[in-house]
């Protein structure tokens, strides 16, 4: 094993949550190391082809801004590069921010490096050494071999809860023992599209054409409906249409099979679009996501478990770190999506305790692997909320380090003003729709 490394705070996973955690912690002066298994940041926002931030704004008659702080600074930086715009969500989930994925890679990277955090690509964590209620070290695997990293505090932002699971934390694995699990999706992009024709068609019409095409037997379509939306580039269109159900994405063999099936489905949807949807006649498949999109795997069983009832009842918490009004969006094994919307103008809060494991005192989690039920996670997994959770976890880790306490011992009355100072929104405010431009 190669020589060891030491850092104040170790962030594992450079997706939206981990990137924001690293920036927030490093801006407070701590020595931070951010590990990412690929060669760029963004996770599902880049690697899996998701080009839209959901969750910054609320649905309903009146639009509210729900997430601010460093997370919204990302949006503002993209806007300055003319690499993002606000558009209505396809399914009525409120205004969303669509961005250029290549520019997001750059913005995330710039912000991490500017913060003073150390960044290490092509590095995964195959092993965690834990005991006596704490993580003692993690083993990092990369081209240099195996390196032991010691950190005072660790943030698991892997999405799949890899670090926490290896450290012995309790979790629920989606899909195990007949439990529900969100389907996987391979996102793809079409080029040379007549977008004026395509986007003059309503979502209802598109769904009807897909339904008729599927029933005719000419096409094998696994999802009826789905999202086709514009991008910042002319003639370049995002397509979220495929569906690979009932997959345990922590099983590498199952994940491999899902990748193969996802690309097969893309070919079928490309054929359908080119033959059946006006505006796609001269289009071609430009990009298939580098990795299949995973919505749900392991979910922490932490200090507080966010539930579907919390979402639907607009629950408030004394230790809130983020706000959300996204519907529970369940990509089940059928051909449609189950939606459960909040009442217009309502929102709920995500508590700090949903980022706190029960066993390891020097560990936090952030992102879609938060402590939540299947239903709670179906809402809280939106990108803006994952960024907000990461931002809160990074701030909490830095503050806990400075005070010499564990994240669980950290007094929320100390954390709250730090979040407010960063611009975190804990009481959403109305935004005039006509002024929602970037």
Task: Give a quick summary of the entry.
The chain has 11 helices and 22 strands. It has helices spanning 16-27, 69-80, 101-115, 162-166, 195-198, 203-216, 252-276, 308-312, 374-380, 383-403, 412-422, and strands at residues 2-12, 32-35, 52-53, 63-65, 84-88, 95-99, 118-120, 124-131, 134-142, 145-156, 171-173, 188-191, 227-230, 237-240, 284-288, 298-300, 320-324, 328-330, 338-340, 348-351, 363-365, 429-431. The mean pLDDT is 96.
Please outline the helices and strands.
Layout: E1 2-12, H1 16-27, E2 32-35, E3 52-53, E4 63-65, H2 69-80, E5 84-88, E6 95-99, H3 101-115, E7 118-120, E8 124-131, E9 134-142, E10 145-156, H4 162-166, E11 171-173, E12 188-191, H5 195-198, H6 203-216, E13 227-230, E14 237-240, H7 252-276, E15 284-288, E16 298-300, H8 308-312, E17 320-324, E18 328-330, E19 338-340, E20 348-351, E21 363-365, H9 374-380, H10 383-403, H11 412-422, E22 429-431
Parallel strand pairs: 1-2, 1-10, 2-7, 10-21
Antiparallel strand pairs: 3-6, 4-22, 5-6, 8-9, 9-10, 11-16, 12-14, 12-15, 13-14, 17-20, 18-19
